[in-house]
């Protein structure tokens, strides 16, 4: 029979090991998803880039959704009811990039990059993670030259 403190120590170690294993599995799954998206984009296929969009109709709100990136087009696909209510921005043209402010970093991942664009509905901002930024910028560049 062990000491009462030993049982507590074993529980803490088991919990830590389980948390580390769950984190590792999450990282592996995300890496696989990113690799598949990169391969599909390299073959010229259509991909969906997870992002957040700030629309002029909803000035202070960030709307969750995806940018559908095809070889010749870029389109917004909302993932919320609020995003479905606003008109989809078309004719996107990049005008700049920036890092999120500390206040925006509370609501989204602070590592993301915000791409400022002009569109058919006015000034639009798109927040995207670093591993997806290249896909979005390349697609915006392609659609601007056409």
Describe, in plain words, how this protein is organized in 3D:
A hairpin with a 4-residue loop joins strand 2 (62-69) and strand 3. This protein is globular. The longest helix is centred in the N-terminal third of the chain and has 39 residues, at 4-42. The chain has a 6-stranded antiparallel sheet with strand order 3-2-1-6-5-4. It is of the alpha+beta class and 146 residues long. Helix content is 45%, strand content 28%.
Topology readout:
Elements: H1 4-42, E1 47-54, E2 62-69, E3 74-78, H2 81-85, E4 93-98, H3 102-107, E5 113-119, E6 122-128, H4 130-145
Antiparallel strand pairs: 1-2, 1-6, 2-3, 4-5, 5-6
Transmembrane segments: 12-30
Keywords: Membrane, Transmembrane, Transmembrane helix
Keywords:
single chain, 146 residues, alpha+beta, six-stranded antiparallel beta sheet, 28% strand, transmembrane, membrane, transmembrane helix
Biggest sheet, strands in spatial order? 3-2-1-6-5-4
* Most strands sheet: 6 strands, antiparallel
| Protein structure class | alpha+beta
Roughly what is the average pLDDT, rounded to an integer? 86
Shape: globular
Q: Report strand %.
A: 25-35%
Rg value: 20 Å
Number of helices: 4
Distance between the termini: 76 Å
């Amino acid at each position: 029979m062990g000491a009462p403190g030993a049982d507590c120590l074993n529980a803490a170690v088991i919990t830590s090991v389980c948390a580390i294993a769950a984190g590792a599995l999450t990282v592996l799954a995300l890496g696989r998803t990113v690799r598949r998206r990169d391969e599909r984009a390299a073959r010229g296929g259509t991909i969906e880039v997870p992002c957040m969009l700030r629309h002029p109709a909803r000035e202070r709100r960030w709307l969750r959704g995806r940018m559908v990136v095809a070889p010749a087009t870029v389109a917004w696909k909302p993932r919320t009811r609020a995003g479905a209510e606003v008109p989809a921005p078309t004719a996107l043209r990049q005008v700049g990039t920036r890092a999120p402010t500390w206040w925006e970093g509370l609501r989204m991942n602070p590592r993301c990059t915000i791409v400022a664009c002009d569109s058919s509905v006015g000034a639009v901002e798109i927040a995207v993670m670093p591993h997806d930024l290249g896909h979005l910028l390349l697609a915006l560049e392609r659609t601007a030259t056409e």
